[in-house]
Amino acid sequence: MAKTKSLCKIIMLFILTQISISNSSSLTPPQVTVTPPPLPILPLPTFSQLKWQQREVIMFHHFGVNTFTDREWGTGDENPAIFNPTSLDANQWVETAVQAGISLMILTAKHHDGFCLWPSKYTDHSVIGSPWRNGKGDVVRELVNAAKARGVDIGLYLSPWDRHDHRYGRTKAYNEYYLAQLQELLKNYGSVREIWFDGAKGANAPNMTYYFNDWFEMVNELQGTINIFSDAGPGVRWVGNEKGFAGTTCWSTINRTSLSIGNGSLINYLNTGDSKGTDWLPSECDVSIRKGWFWHKSQAPKTLTELLEIYYNSVGRNCLLLLNVPPNTKGLISDSDVMRLKEFRGAIETIFSSNLAENCSIKVSSQRGGGFGPENMIDGDHLWTYWAPMDEYTGHHWIKLTAFKEKLKFNVVRIQEAIGLGQRIKRHQVYVDGVKVADGTTVGYKKLHRLEKGVVEGYSVKIKIIGSRASPLISSIGLHFDPFWHPYS
């Protein structure tokens, strides 16, 4: 009997021991095998700035009394009765934008002449005095409604310079008037994704002061997800010209304390940015599809070749392209402009719809760890999946693409950084079968090399990163064929 009891105790002790071991094993955390992401390098973009950058191309609409006087700058003494777009159709504007792949449209709610495209309570120099819609029209409202129906976002431009209002030149009175109109636009028309300010100022009032900081504070109070454009941001900066061209070096970083709105001496700084900049303030490249900003019967849209040149020098240089498309006196986007925009969009899709890099083997100089392999550069995600090399610097970082069978034939090289963790690359080069075909500085959100020699052929393509603020993080690469690029023609 004693032996039986002892045996039972031994068996029970063994069972309890196994249960204890099993329970303790289940509480032990598994071994961590995934390498964490590298540290960001400051400054970083905001959520709104990232969304803005991904739009790549947005649209401007200069429209108002100048459309009917054949001027670029109004005098401020125009009779509101001349504004009479009898066939105005904001749905046609939006449809034009959608077909062009545009997701944000910015309207000149008030230009320098002071005429308001909405029925402002603070002036009668507006659509109230127009025969259009019997004085009860509202261009801003019609565009907002049409855009909302198609899922397109809206932006607004409210000129600081007002050549009509009698308060202009009296700083306090005019700033009160301006802020009142700003509140009307940002409170009554739903979500506004971009607000456009410039430093335009009348020569007759050289001492006029704009309370920009007050304006910015009011904007942020009324619209939490908006981007504010001006020479000095704070959300988006001007590129420094109206040709649509960024600098060959273009940083999204800059020092805002060095900027001031309307200061023409800072053009070069705005154009290139600053590798040591303390603020994330990317560039917007504004240019018109025609020679002028307002519609003129005598003018025609730019050619496809000209528009593609602008695209490569704006979007392809880490910027966003703001393309102005002015409605005509009927209140419609002219057929010639509609057709050119379709042609432009079709060309971009033709060029970038096929990526030869997807059909290559990819080798890299090093890899940070699991989750940061070269396959991330061809997965279609241009922001949050990326190749990361080892932190230890052992020479120049590189990416090598090798064709499996036939030679690669292309004339455009695309490189994109994971800018959500900061802009890093200072210098890079591209080689085809050992021959250098491109030499560049910054990359940022997107760098497009349209090869100067035209189409190249080869079995291997090597991208060398020979200067960087920190370990480069490449989110996407591409080899493309542009049939519209003829460098020797």
What can you see in these coordinates?
The protein is 26% helix and 21% strand. It has 489 residues and is α/β, with parallel strands linked by helices. It has 2 domains: 47-352, Glycosidases (TIM Barrel), CATH 3.20.20.80; 356-480, Galactose-binding domain-like (Jelly Rolls), CATH 2.60.120.260. The strands form 5 sheets. The chain has an 8-stranded parallel β-barrel with strand order 1-2-3-4-5-6-9-10. Strands 11-12-19-15-16 form a 5-stranded antiparallel β-sheet, with no helix packed on it. Strands 17-14-20 form a 3-stranded antiparallel β-sheet, with no helix packed on it. Helix 4 packs across helix 5 (139-150) and helix 6 (171-188) runs parallel beside helix 7. The longest helix is centred in the N-terminal third of the chain and has 26 residues, at 2-27. The relative contact order is 0.12. Mean pLDDT is 93; it is low at 1-5, 7-17 and 19-26.
Q: What is the strand and helix layout of this fold?
A:
Elements: H1 2-27, H2 47-55, E1 57-61, H3 66-69, H4 90-99, E2 104-110, H5 139-150, E3 153-158, H6 171-188, E4 194-196, H7 212-222, E5 227-230, E6 236-238, E7 253-254, H8 267-272, E8 279-280, E9 283-288, H9 304-314, E10 320-324, H10 335-352, E11 360-364, E12 397-403, E13 408-410, E14 412-417, E15 425-432, E16 435-440, E17 447-450, E18 456-458, E19 460-468, E20 474-480
Parallel strand pairs: 1-2, 1-10, 2-3, 3-4, 4-5, 5-6, 6-9, 9-10
Antiparallel strand pairs: 7-8, 11-12, 12-19, 13-18, 14-17, 14-20, 15-16, 15-19
